[in-house]
Amino acid sequence: MNKANLSIFASGAGSNLLAIHDASLDKSFPGKLQLVICNKVCPAFELAKSLNYETKLISNLSIEKFELIAHQELIKKKIDLICLAGFMRILSPNFVLKWQNKILNIHPSILPMFPGLDTHKKILLNGLKIHGSTVHIVNEKLDSGKILGQFAFAVKSDDYNSLIRNIKKYENLLYPEVIRKYIWTFLFKEDKFFKDKKIHLNNVVFSY
Ligand code: GRF
Fold first, then answer.
1. 8 forms bridges with which residues in the sheet?
2. Residue extents of the structural domains in the chain
3. Of 44, 67, 134, 144, which has fewest CB within 10 angstroms of its CB?
C-alpha cells in the first residue's frame, strides 16, 4: 500500500506523537512517520528517539532559521504531511504557504472558541460546561484554518489537571483518525470510504 510520509513537529509530552505512532502500526493506516522535529529537548523528542524515528532538534533559533532547516529536512525525507502535535512555535505565513494544506494541528479547544494559549484556564475561569479539541488545517492565521474534526465533553467537577488528562485521552483517539481520513481524502483523493462520522464514546461526541 502506498503510504504518505509524515513528519511530526512537537515540543511537549508526546502523547499525540505516541498515538500517531500506535495508529501507524496498523497496516491499513495510510501514513508512515518518517521524521520528528522538535524545537527543544522535551519528552516528545526522547520518545521519538526511543521509538527509533529519525529526529531533528532545531533549537534556539529564530522562526525563519528554524523553518529553513526544517524545510530542507522535510524535502530530503519527501514529507507529504506535517502534523503539529503540541508544537509551541507559530509558523510564519511564508512557511505555511510553502506547505499549504499540508500542515495539520491539534488545538485544545472547540475552535473558533479560545484560539491561542491557556485554553484550559479559560474554560475554568469562564465556568464553561463543555470543553474539547479541534484538528484543523494550518493557515497563516493562528488556529483559524479549516476544521477537520472535533470532540466535546462535559466539564464536571474538573480541575486543571483532570481537564488536561481528559483532553489528551480523547485527542489521542481523534488525531490519528483525522489524519487517516485526511490522507485518504485530500492527499490520495480517495473519499469513498469516508463519510462524515459522529461517534459517541463514554458520553463524548466525536465528529470528523
Ligand atoms: C495537546 O493538548 C494539544 O492539543 C496541544 O498541545 C498538547 C500536546 O500534548 N496543542 P502532547 O505533547 O501530544 O501530549
1. 36, 83
2. 4-207
3. 144
